[in-house]
Amino acid sequence: MELNILWFWIIAAMFIGYFVLDGFDFGVGMSLPFLGRDDTDRRVLINTIGPVWDLNETWLIVAGASLFAAFPEWYATMFSGFYLALLLILLALIVRGVSFEYRHQRPESEWKKWFDAMIVVGSAVPALLWGVAFANVVQGVPLDAGHNFSGSFFDLLNPYALLGGLTTLLLFFTHGIVFVSLKTEGDIRERARKLAVRSGIVTILVAASFLLWTVLAFGSLFTAVFAGLAAVALIGSFLFNLRGSEGWAFTLMAATIGLAVLTLFASLFPDVMPASNDAANSLTIANASSTPYTLQVMSWTALIAAPVIFLYQGWTYWVLRKRVSRGTIEAAAH
Fold this sequence. Notes:
The chain is mostly helical. The chain has helices at about 5-30, 30-35, 40-50, 55-70, 70-80, 85-100, 110-140, 160-185, 185-220, 220-240, 245-270, 285-290, 290-320, 325-330, and strands at about 270-275, 285.
């Protein structure tokens, strides 16, 4: 396999890692109005992701840096053309991070209320806009002969892209609620499981519509296989959640998100940024990649660093595997 093709799939794997890990962070943040009946409940929810949310976001940094190094033309076209959407994602991530750190700095309920609202917004905006962005990449956008985006922000808000945004929003929301049921005890765990059942039904309908549209309009045999496996995993997660098997439900939700991302990248291949106005202006794996020497250096670096990163992150989750309860929160307050 040529190195530029290898790095196309490595970047796909990095975005899978980011969407699976930060995806449940987004879902937990969006669940505050639905599961947080009082401040203690909201602290329980935030504490489920408190030790790991910033670690999960590093996957986005690594994915963006790898995209810049391996496919600079792709990076330049996407980040300039989707500038406003990506800026909104960045601002939302900043607001969310600040809110996690500042909500407990003062005891007033109004203070916490404002930061809780910012956590919800800072989680929902990226969950929606990531889907819009990737759907537009798969569908194609207007590009000139120099591979520059020639459309406007409103061109990105088309029906397919908006359905993609709604799909990621619902997938992350349900993923986060299942994670809450996996990481909590007592009443909040049961309420999270019941909410995941209700949101799961809507998520299945919306995600199935988006995946079917993707396969019919942009797909191939591999796309259809990945989309079919994603649908099976999503339905399996729903059924396991009905039975109260949170571990399997969470695992299959993670598989659903991973397979959905693979569906999008398989639909894209061998392009990286199709031109909707003229196929000759499209960016492909061949004309958007760095030099072979650059990709060789990146490959050796990844081979050395990746095992260390995986071991460290796996160890972190193992150490922090215990469930969070209202009792632990109330005891820590005294």
